[in-house]
Amino acid sequence: MKLLNNQWFVGITCSIIASVIWSIGNEYIKIDILNKLFEYKIQFYLWELLMYIFIIAAIVLFVIKIMKNLKFLNYKNDNWSNINWIWEWKKNEKGLYEVSNLNMLCPKCNDGVFTVATMYSKNYDCVKCGFSIPINSFKKPFLSQIQDEIFNEVKKKFPKEIKFIENK
């Protein structure tokens, strides 16, 4: 069964089967349109082939350059609801960027990540300076609200690059 999951085996087997079917079918079933299509010879000059390769390479390099120069990728922190937030951009399976690792910073040292130690904790704690504040006295917005704010800011600051971001 491992052999059936091997891409090389499946590709070569399918090619052999298709070749056998084509040769058998070509002898017994005469389809003039297909025969004429496959008899047509395509002739390229070397300079044409090199030109096509150059054009395709230029397009690929242009797309890569655009993807590397996305300015919104440097936008990784901001302040909402009097809380400083930091995040990273991660490419998802669709090739679009999304916010990941979204965290709020400590209001005292503004350097450490401000988190809840356990699900039973009653305080937000700074992992760097140890500052602590009760959860019920701290009005923190939902992460989805902050992600929406980030999306809106990118839309305002980098309107041409919004197509590279997925808003959840």
Indicate the proportion of strand residues.
Answer: 15-25%
Strand order of the largest sheet: 1-2-3-4-5-6
Quaternary state of the chains: single chain
Strand elements, count: 6
Low-confidence stretches: none
Q: Largest sheet at a glance?
A: 6 strands, antiparallel
Distance between the termini: 40 Å
Principal-axis shape: elongated
What integer is the average pLDDT?
Answer: 79
Structural class: alpha+beta
One letter per element, helices H and strands E, the order comes to HHHHEEEEEEH
Helical element count? 5
Radius of gyration: 29 Å
Kindly state the percentage of residues in helix. Answer: 40-55%
Describe it.
This protein is α+β, with helices and mostly antiparallel strands and 168 residues long. It has five helices and six strands, in the order H-H-H-H-E-E-E-E-E-E-H. It has helices at 2-5, 7-28, 32-39, 46-68, 143-157; strands at residues 77-80, 83-91, 97-105, 113-116, 123-126, 132-134. Strands 1-2-3-4-5-6 form a six-stranded antiparallel beta sheet, covered by helices on one side. A hairpin with a 5-residue loop joins strand 2 (83-91) and strand 3 (97-105).
